[in-house]
Structure formats: C-alpha cells, structure tokens
Amino acid sequence: MVVLQNNTMVLIGVFTLLFTLQYLNAQPIVDTPWGIVEGTTNVTEDWTPYHAFLGIPFAVPPTGGRRFKRPQPHPGFNHIFKANSYGPACVQTLKAFGGYGATGDEDCLTLNVFTPASITETSNIPVIVWIHGGGFVSGDAFSYDPSSIVAHRHVIVVTIQYGLGPLGFLSTEDHVSAGNYGLWDQHLALKWVKKNIASFGGDINSITLMGQSAGSASVAFQALYSWSKDLFQRTIMQSVSVSSSLAHTRNPLKYARQLGHKVNCSSQSDSASMIACLRTVSAASWPMENEPVTALAEFYFVPTIDGIFVKDDPLLLMSSPGYLKQVGLQNLDCMVSVVSNEGGLFKRLSKAADYLFHSSLSSSVQNKTFYRNIFILEVLQVYFGASSS
User: Fold this and answer.
1) What pLDDT was estimated at residue 371?
2) d(CA 359, CA 182)
3) Among 15, 53, 84, 365, which residue's beta carbon has the most beta carbons within 10 A?
4) How far apart are CA 316 and CA 362, in angstroms?
5) By C-alpha distance, which of 197, 193, 194, 246 is closest to 217?
6) Are 238 and 212 in contact (CB under 8 A)?
7) From the centroid of its chain, how far is CA 339?
8) For the chain, which ranges sit under pLDDT 50?
C-alpha cells in the first residue's frame, strides 16, 4: 500500500513537471493597443508558472532636448517587441544611500507586467501598479519580485520606473523647467496601464496603485492630481506621508542653481540659459544625492509645488473637501501602513546626527535631551509629516 502511495505521488510530480514544462516551452504573446509584446514564462520556487513581460518602454527616451520636459508617450513598434529583459535603472548615485558612484541610464522609462500563466485576455482580474521608493533619488522597478503574489493570488502586477534626482525633479520655478517630471513619468505609465492592461487579462476598473517610501508619497501625489481620476480605484501607501519633508521641497530654484554651479553652468544669466547648459552635461557626472542642509534633512530634488501637477501644499489640498471632491478622492479606497524594519532608517540618521552635533553637546544629559526633544521629533516630521508629533 505504501508503495502504491509513493508511486502515485511520483506520478503526480511527473505530471506537474510536464505541465510546467509545457508552459515554459510556449512564450506568451499579447496583442495590445501599444503593439505586440512577447514575454517569457517563468516559475516560482514551488514551480508555479507565471508570465513576465519586461522592459516595455512607455515613453519616448527623455534624452537630449527632451531632458527637463514632460515625457511623451512611446508610439509602440510595428514588429513584435521582445519583452524578455528588464530595462536599465534610471540615472542615480549610489552615494545617496551609502554607496559610491553613479549608475543607470537616462533612457529608462520602462515598465514590467507580471501575470498568472493561466489567464487570457478575457480573464478580467485585478491589477496592482507598484511605484518603488528610494527618496526620489534612488531605486528601480526590478528589485521587487512579485512572482509569488502573481502566481498564487491571481492578480496582475505592474512595476514602473520614473526619473530620479535632477532628471526627475529639477525645477527653476518657471516654464523653463517646472519640475515634477518623475511624477509625470508615473502618470504616463498609469495611462499606459489603463489603455493596455485589458489585453493582458487585467480589469481596468480594478487597479490598485501601491508604493513604499517615496513611492508612497508618489501614490498620494497621483491621487491628488486632477487628471488621475479613473486611472486607479484603490491606493496603498506604505511608510511616507505626502506631507513629510521627504515628499516635497520649497526651495527648488536654490537647488537648481547649486547644481548649475557644481557642473559649471551657473554663469548663465537666466534659467533658460542654465537649463540649456545642463542639457549638454553628462548626467552621470552630476552630484545626485540629497544632502542634509538643515538640522537633519531637507531634500533637494523631489516634487515641488508647481501649480499644475501639485496645485498647492499637499496638506492644504487634503484639507479641502471641495478639492477632494474635484479629483474624486472621496470615492478612492485607501490603505495606509508602514513596512517592517522602517526604523532602520533612524539608525543611519542617528549616526549622521552624532557626527554633526557631538562636538556641540558637552554632556550625555544634553545628548539625551537633544535626541528626545529634537532628533526624534524631526525624524517623525521628515518621514510622516508635521502632524505626526
């Protein structure tokens, strides 16, 4: 009897393997309004198959004369696009989070679509769009593996990339470079998803926008933008509030000029000349990091109040019932949470504070008072907004 049971289990395992191999041998092809996309079939750790369509460009490369401008939609291809590898990360400096050197590429506005292997164009299943974090200066869409969620929870996951640092958020506070290009990148990716995801089996009326850290603030900015209505129906925001210091700056022109000075473009007499100069400088040589310039941290190249994408101070917008009704936020399902080990960021800030202030704190009593009355409150403000204290 035991032998029969063992044989049965072996046969089940063989059939499961054959079933999986059948999926692996057939590359998925999807005909979308954007164009025909060929992906790959992969398996999770427990051999559950899923489809991946990687590195799909949703915008024209934001290079050359298109630097510091709103992204333009990619027209698609008249041939089958081989979506079998991730696109490069957007230009960023590893120094921003403890590393060294620049990495990435300006031609980085791509997205990735992950679907269960069993779905078809008529499946009509829920969709999650993920916006990565990284303080608006770091991060990418390929560090997150949604395969387990996709394969076992019967949902489609889309991960997107957007411009970072100066390339995504430099602003001269005028029409020359209004800023918030990273937010426009995200918005364009959402429009791509709305237009094309049904071809992958997704339900265009069941889209959840989700992000962590800077991605969380990005979700809020997208929800507060008046032309985002109907692009998604639910939001999940993890660990950063749109009202936090990390989420937006009030001094964009100051920081744009500082960058111009560092790359020898500060001699230009007006913002148009400075931006023209900056377009000629290799982004790989730019100092992209957000340096602490106040007691703890004031972030340089992050979203700004431009009067267009970000109409006003986010706290004022969220406090206005009329504006919330205008953008449809009252009908938007919203979940707010934090991620595990979020306090790990505090350790890095504590070391920075020790370095900056140790010489001016003459006793351990002063040190403890500083951390209790100043440091902790400022950390909460930076990450969770002024009302958190």
Assistant:
1) 63
2) 39
3) 53
4) 41
5) 246
6) yes
7) 16
8) 1-4, 10, 96-97, 290-297, 359, 361-362, 365, 387-389
CA distance 217 to 241: 6
CA distance 331 to 11: 51
* Cα–Cα dist 120/118, whole Å: 7
What pLDDT score does 329 carry?
Answer: 82
pLDDT at 184: 98
pLDDT tens for each residue of 149-184 = 999 989 999 999 999 999 999 999 999 999 999 999
CA 284 to chain centre: 20
Assigned domain for 333 exists:
yes
Terminal C-alpha separation, the chain: 67
CATH of the domain at 311: 3.40.50.1820
241 vs 315: CA distance, rounded Å: 10
Which residue's structure tokens are 């990687």? Answer: 54
Residues 183, 248: contact at Cβ < 8 Å? no
Q: What is the pLDDT of residue 245?
A: 72
And the tokens for 193?
A: 């998803």
Number of domains the chain is built from: 2
Q: Which domain holds residue 378?
A: 348-388
pTM of the model: 0.83
Beta-carbon count within 10 A of 291 CB: 13
CA-based nearest residue to 178, from 187, 168, 188 = 168
Round to whole Å and give the CA distance between 58 and 358.
Answer: 48
At which residue do the structure tokens 């990284």 appear? 134
